[in-house]
Design a protein that fits this description.
Layout: E1 18-21, E2 23-24, E3 43-44, H1 47-60, E4 66-70, H2 79-92, E5 98-103, H3 105-109, H4 113-122, E6 124-132, H5 136-141, H6 148-160, E7 164-171, H7 179-192, E8 197-202, H8 207-215, H9 225-238, E9 245-248, E10 259-262, H10 266-279
Parallel strand pairs: 1-4, 4-5, 5-6, 6-7, 7-8, 8-9
Antiparallel strand pairs: 2-3, 9-10
């Protein structure tokens, strides 16, 4: 049995896959909307400990084919350290087809293209990446640590190394005051940066984050569910990506679940939003079924 350090988070798509904590916490850990790793200090776990866990999991699940490396941004690991883990994963799980992790723009910017290509050759194939917004003003307010141009460069490096990106955007993160800037600048970023998957979720502030988040705004008026749908519709209308994007809004926070491929299904998705807006609250997922 693996002795995980909790809290432990993973993307919904990794629910049935092997999870290995290569690091604890998040190397940035300053995003004002996030409370995921506030109880943890960022730590690189000793390689020998992680290797023992890989061997134990491989013995119990010899046919596993997908592995997620936790915690918050395992790509922050030194390249040689991460490369050793990838080599062990490949030998331990003969049917391995995918290794994924959370990653920040800073992680990609701190590694050379050659380093990223080395990791890709070692088996790292997917990174979950929080865009949140393309607005420089909002990126500063939420303490993301990078601007939009840096985020585009990070995504370009991932693409050049052939590491797929599953990106997220947070609807409502600018309130009513920044809604237009948030959506237009986010669409501009997505149109400039090749990604494979895109998900939207709705802003939800836990008590541990609310005061710090709001402190950065002179005024912040939250969007209601119908206003969020207008944001989402506007975003979909503006996205014209350099390559096709598999789009989902099926996160537990979302009032309306959508799925399709952009830009092929953009009009269909906008029509679904229009139908929901015509019906109103009755077309949305009840609030008590939603959460983070």
């Amino acid at each position: 049995m693996i002795d995980y350090s909790f809290p432990l988070y993973r993307p919904p798509a990794e629910a049935d896959n092997i999870i290995i904590q290569a690091t604890l916490g998040c190397s940035h850990n300053r995003c004002s909307f996030c409370t995921m790793y506030k109880t943890k200090r960022y730590t690189i776990r000793p390689l020998n400990e992680v290797c023992r866990e890989i061997e134990a999991l491989a013995h119990t699940y010899p046919n596993a084919n997908k592995v997620f490396l936790a915690d918050g941004d395992a790509l922050a690991l030194p390249t040689d350290h991460l490369a050793k883990l990838l080599r062990l994963l490949k030998t331990s799980f003969p049917r391995l087809t995918r290794v994924s992790l959370y990653a920040t723009a800073q992680n990609f910017l701190e590694k050379s293209i050659d380093e990223l290509k080395e990791l890709r050759a070692g088996g790292l194939s997917l990174a979950y990446f929080g865009i949140e917004t393309g607005s420089d003003a909002l990126l500063s307010k939420i303490d993301k640590g990078v601007n939009a141009d840096q985020m585009i460069e990070a995504l370009r490096r991932a693409h050049e190394a052939n590491i797929k990106i599953s990106a997220t955007v947070i609807l409502g993160i600018g309130g009513i005051e920044y809604t237009r800037e948030h959506i237009h600048d986010t669409a501009k970023l997505i149109n400039a940066a090749p990604i494979t998957y895109l998900s939207t979720l709705q802003l939800g502030l836990e008590e541990g984050a609310k005061d710090r988040f709001l402190k950065a705004f002179d005024s912040f008026t939250p969007l209601n569910d119908l206003q969020i749908l207008h944001e989402q519709r506007e975003l979909l209308s503006l996205i014209n990506p350099p390559q096709k994007i598999i789009f989902r809004s099926n996160h537990a926070s979302n009032a309306l679940h959508l799925s399709g491929t952009l830009p092929k299904d953009s009009k269909k998705l906008m029509a679904q939003i229009d139908d929901a807006l015509r019906v109103g609250e009755g077309a949305l997922i009840p609030k008590w079924f939603r959460g983070f």
